[in-house]
Amino acid sequence: MSAITSIEDLRILAKKRVPRMFYDYADTGSWTESTYRANESDFKKIKFRQRVAVNMEGRTTASTMLGQSVAMPVAIAPTGMTGMQHADGEILGALSAKAFGIPFTLSTMSICSIEDVAQATNGHPFWFQLYVMRDRDFIERLIDRAKAAGCSALVLTLDLQILGQRHKDIKNGLTVPPKLTIPTMLDLVTKLRWCMGMLGTRRHQFGNIFGHVKGIENMGSLSEWTAKQFDPALNWNDVEWIKKRWGGKLILKGIQDVEDAKIAVQSGADALIVSNHGGRQLDGAQSSIEALPAIVNAVGSQIEVHMDGGIRSGQDVLKAIALGAKGTYIGRSFLYGLGANGREGVDQALQIIHKELDLTMAFCGRTQISQVNSDILLPSTFPT
After folding, report:
1. Which residues make beta-bridge pairs with 48?
2. pTM over 0.70
3. How far apart are alpha carbons 278 and 40 in whole angstroms?
4. Using alpha carbons only, what angle is made at residue 350 by residues 149 and 4, rounded to the nearest 5 degrees?
5. Can you tell me the distance from the alpha carbon of 331 to that of 157, in angstroms, rounded to the nearest whole number?
6. Residue 201's closest CA among 79, 124, 112, 123?
7. Could you give phi then psi for residue 153, rounded to 5 degrees?
8. For 167-187, how does the pLDDT look when each residue is reduced to its tens digit (9 = 90+)?
9. What is the rounded CA–CA span in Å between residue 147 and residue 135?
10. What is the rounded CA–CA span in Å between residue 39 and residue 286?
11. Rounded to an integer, what distance in angstroms lies between the CA atom of residue 125 and that of residue 150?
12. What kind of fold does domain 7-381 have according to CATH?
């Protein structure tokens, strides 16, 4: 195998090693996928100002996110079904994030449970992402479980009250665990490494759901289950009771509009994430990096603004920080590493992003991430 030098190398390897339905689940967007593609391509419109003859010694990418010290302003984003990219995927991601010194965010729709991750990381604090479902008793118990596990922040996702249509998931017949149809079995026989990993773990279902939701015996298709369980009536009033029940640091995920950002400030949240759910919900929406500057300008002095969507390199991280983000999140970049090489692949992904961030920052004449602002960018390339 040739040397791994970029996130793209990890993506190519993951595509070879992960069953098609699960690779496609991670690497897809809704409808025409225009927003999914724009999340990544819009970063390329932003150009750096190269500076020279600047002392580049003593560089540091260390920063804080939500008051927590981080080795770089990057967190691992909450991603559903991570444990289907690689056996025990959430545990491996959390261990890698812990070793590197960045936050790990566990999804409600994870394969490994909150308790699994807490036990594996010896109580090291991680963040938990919450989807609001119709069963409010379950949601309250889920919040309590996150508190009991020592989670240090709650990430409330606001942009998935209903599920956007992702054509590939429908065509692949996405289920957890996979139904053994003829096409699925033909695919699995070419993914023996993945299969052996799955045979070695007991975690094959949604660990936070099974055994915790009344009357749930068979989830059937993911889209059918979410249509029944996710709460389309979720509104800003619900943020108040969730914040009260949680009692800790609260991050609101899925903000793309300035007016919503202003309401997020009024809600008393500690941070917001500029995000379009990786282009998986409203197709034809702005990319996250394009939406970021206006939101920073409107509320950046009142609330900590983070962003996700399309980050495939340390250069992308630096561009987001230059445009005012205080933190960024990687989803697919993390999943590519996980699918490619398990824990080692996640380590590789973080190392790649960190090295690119560090070197690019130096070429732009900065030695500390705290010194980075829009001066490192060519003004004509700002997203509009």
Report:
1. 377
2. yes
3. 10
4. 140
5. 14
6. 112
7. -155, 150
8. 999 999 998 889 889 999 999
9. 19
10. 8
11. 6
12. TIM Barrel (3.20.20)
Cα separations in angstroms, 189 against 19, 84, 139, 203? 9, 16, 38, 20
**Identity (one letter) of the amino acid at 50?**
Q
Q: How far apart, in whole angstroms, are the C-alpha atoms of residue 270 and residue 257?
A: 18
Task: Give me the percent of the chain exceeding a pLDDT of 70.
Answer: 95
The residue type at 17? R
Instruction: Tell me the chain's radius of gyration from C-alpha atoms.
Output: 20
> Distance (Å, rounded) from C-alpha 196 to C-alpha 200?
6
107-131 in b/e burial notation, b at 16+ Cβ within 10 A? Answer: bbbbbbbbebbbebbeebebbbbbb
φ/ψ of 66, rounded to 5, equals 60, 35
Q: Is 204 a catalytic residue?
A: no
- Summarised one tens digit per residue, pLDDT across range 51-69 is 999 999 999 999 999 999 9
As given in the structure block, the two tokens for residue 88 are 């025990």
Residues making up the chain, counted from first to last:
384
Averaged pLDDT of the chain: 94
Domain boundaries, the chain: 7-381
Backbone angles phi, psi at 235, to 5 degrees: -145, 180
Which residue in the list 86, 124, 212, 277 is annotated as catalytic? 277
Containing 117, the helix (H) or strand (E) segment is: helix 114-120
